[in-house]
Amino acid sequence: MGLRDGAAETDGAALTGAEVRQVEPGSPAAEAGIQDGDLVVAIDGEQVRSAIALVGQVRERASGEQVELEVVRDGERVQVTVTLATRPDGG
């Protein structure tokens, strides 16, 4: 999954987070329904302000662990459950 810092507005509030730039087919993100353009603003209720912050949060968790992501999609907040996995290339 490709990420960059991003921002979105929802309910009149400006939010920053990790913007999804690319979802690899067959990846846990794809299987969970994460879409290009989604802005991840929280993981398990903890605010995410940047792409690096999201990567750090994911690295603190174990492969196979389920996490709840809050994303902003088309101006709406959406909850998405993702099962983390180790990338085949070790990244």
Characterization of this structure:
There is one protein chain. This protein is of the alpha+beta class. It has 2 helices and 6 strands, in the order ββαββαββ. Helices cover 15% and strands 46% of the residues. Strands 1, 2, 3, 4, 5 and 6 form a 6-stranded antiparallel beta sheet that branches. The longest helix has 9 residues, at 51-59.
Task: Summarize it.
The protein is 15% helix and 46% strand.
Protein topology:
Elements: E1 2-10, E2 13-22, H1 28-32, E3 39-43, E4 46-47, H2 51-59, E5 66-73, E6 76-83
Antiparallel strand pairs: 1-2, 2-3, 3-4, 3-5, 5-6
The SSE order reads EEHEEHEE
What class, by secondary structure content?
Answer: alpha+beta
Whole-Å distance between the termini?
Answer: 11 Å
Helix fraction bin = 10-25%
Task: Profile the largest sheet.
Answer: 6 strands, antiparallel
Radius of gyration: 12 Å
Average pLDDT for all residues: 93
Could you tell me the number of beta strands?
6
Strand content: over 45%
Show unreliable segments: none
The shape, in one word, is globular
Number of helices: 2
Any key phrases for this structure?
15% helix; six-stranded antiparallel beta sheet; alpha+beta
